[in-house]
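One-letter codes give the sequence; the fold follows as tokens. An example follows:
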Amino acid sequence: MDGPFDISRGYTHLPNFQKRLKEKGYVVTSQARQSKTALFLGRNGIPIPYDRRDDPGLRLNDKDGAEAYHVNHNIQQFPSFKSIPPLLIKILLHRENRELFDFEHPFLNPAIEWDRLSLASFRYLGEKLFGIPAGIGGSTLVTQMVKFRHSSKGMTSGPMDKIRQIIGGSLWAYRKGPNTIDTRKEIVREYFNGMPLGAAKGYGEINGIGKGMWAWFGKNIDQVMSDLQMNETDQDMLYRKAKTLKEALSLIIATRYPSLYLQKDHTILEKTVNTYLRLLETDGIISIALKKAALTTPLEFRRGAPIPPPLSLVERKGTDSIRIKLLNLLGIETLYELDRLDMAVDTTFDFDVQQKVNNILKSLYVPEFLEENGFLAPYLLNKGDPGGVIYSFALFESRPEGNLLRIQADTLNKPLSITTGIKLELGSTAKLRTLASYLMVIDHLYGCFSEKDRSDLLKKKTQVYDPLSKWVLDYLLYHPKAAQEEILKASLQRSISGSPHQAFFTGGGMHTFKNFKKDQDNRVFTIEEGLCQSVNLVFIRLMKEVVDYYTANLGYDVKALLSETNNPERLPLLREAMELESVEFLRKYYRIYAGKTYEESFAILCQSSEHPLRNWVILYLKENPEATLEQLITAAKSHFQEKALDLTSLNKLFRAYQGKSYQLTDEAYLLGKHPLEVWVAFYLKEHPKTLWSKLLEESKDARMLSSSWIFKTRFHHAQNLRIESLLERKAFAEIHRTWRSMGYPFATLVPSLATAIGSSADRPVNLAEFMGIILNEGIYKPMVSIKGLHFGKDTPYETHLSKPPDTKKRVMSPLVARSLKDALRQVVKRGTAQRIKNTFTLSDGTSADIGGKTGTGDNRFETFRRGEGVVSSKSINRTSAFVFYADRFFGIVTVHVEGPNASQYEFTSALAVQVLKTLWPALQPLFADKGQRLILPSRPDAP
């Protein structure tokens, strides 16, 4: 069936939904099985009779099955047949179905009025044979309902369609037995509650007289019921009754042509209603007084759509995250369509706890609450406006079937979710990913070397170039019986300097880095202490060692490669580096010049801080090689608008450049531009709509020419810079591959040591996902928020689907995961997250096992000048984050300020930790179930 009702409820699209869900791993667990009769009816386009619910629509249930979200589309309806004003029933039956309440015939078929059907058939034949307009149709109320619910586009396409509607209406009328009196009353109520009235801008589809009265005239269903039962002896009551009667009658009439009557021409509707009011009085349905009052009362339509009550997107972040996911699962375009589906969804959320979390997060904007809970302190919210801060929180529970999303909340009153939809610089939380990369390298090296004897280890030591391989070899030489766990623990106790007084070649140049605290500058830390105290330079140096390992793993002797001019591996690397560099320049200039007119491009090429006149002359003479000096002067006056033109200089430039042509590199040199910028500008002049792929193909010779200078021997230092950058880029590609396996969301990493302290950014949900891998001892479990979907309850289309647990995947050795978890535990015990220590006290008096990593992102746009350092610094945003585990739960708290106002704040990661501490009272019920302790594998899984 493809009627409007079937489409909006999702029954028509159910096969497509099933197909998409199957592709996503869902399986049908139960489904209504239709009888042979039902299948026959369906094949022949006849709707299957069943009892329809009064409140269909999308429902979201929490983890315990309690309803957490449901938009009731059937508001403003008559709750029962008795609630419908008798006058309204008389008017409807007089117009649409006069024999329906002939209760002397209890077995009457309400789908057929024989005289009406005969007249309609006669008129139909007259229209087809003689072109006589058919006029009124032969539909009864029940066949009309079948039509606008189940017929294509809610219309009758021909005699066979009408027969299908009559059969469908008859089956529905007799579904409870031969006596149809109660059913006929039900038909009237359902008709009033479902009559199609088109749509109102800003409101949406309107079905039912109650919704119509509210949308078009601003009256709710209670007012309609009250007004139409008023006494006509009182003049004020009479006119009030007449006004509501006329409005209701206009909607009954408008069901025939809702778009014409309700949206295009109210004048025609008014005339039709007035005509019918006279007929109603003539036939004794309404009194003369009521008719006169109605005729003198004009229809006054509401201006604009009803204003819905304000929605708090903050309150609905959890449910909205499910709804958005459902859009993708089902292939639906809008939330409006989604909410109309007859579907219940079982989610993993605990919406009761979510509401408590929301309440606490909202309290973070109340000064008294902030003061009571210690937020007005250094490194928290003692500076800056607390009202400008955005908080987000997500909590997952590790269960055998996956990582179940329990809470997702933030205080951004926009559809965007901070947890899942935004890329943030989460500062030192990147040290956790860096530490994981380091431990995975140590673990791999142990696997490579642990079975070798002493002589092999000594030999291998002479063949390796990187410090990590040398350290593992040294450790095994001094501890030949060391176990895997021992060497991982020892690797965390290695000492690394926190000194910032060293420049590192990274990201294509020399860079220095700073620690957050000055007292860290002159100390040496173990790696574990560096994590606890979040020492930047420890992790810069640690990332440098990891980069060196992957560089050496590529098979290059970097020292020899950079020092030996004739090294055979040098030229291929240099060519690769220059190809990458030239493509980056080409892409940059394509973005600048694509879509611009040549006049605009010409103006950009003329720009020069030192020689704007020379640039203009060179380009003008290139375009006009036959130009005379007088023509040049005239054009120059026009271009520069005669602004103090130096005619002597212009004359010299004319003599210097007139009649000359240059190679691309020489021309670019004279203009002070990159050769590829000049090439792109002139290529797009001749081929203005060139796509990037075509431009890249055509630029091959230009790119080779622009890079040719680097291959000369005297540019040895410049060559080394590019080779070093390329090797670093290759190493980061390997690091990125490891990070991706641990849930890192982005397609690239910034090839810089600054990635170790957050320059590559992250997404909160993916950082939490990484914490889940650590908690689950190196096993990736899927993030689960939807457990099952139930379509069409108590209908012939009822279908239940669920998703079996996805295959778990090991992405990290269990001992590496345990080492990381132990290190994170120390961050809470004696590091930057100490303020959360002893907060998570369980009902039995014990404390939850808790660990985590803090991070502060202070993202700035800084301008440097040679010899002067930073000359300006503009804050872009500031972020505080704490990613954590606590018993079987894990999650992340983020605090974020966007824009220049971020410079007013001085909060650090301590703020995110303080937020989690404040949330504990709301989270306690989740931790109360002692029977759901985290179950970890007793032995490592096979890779």
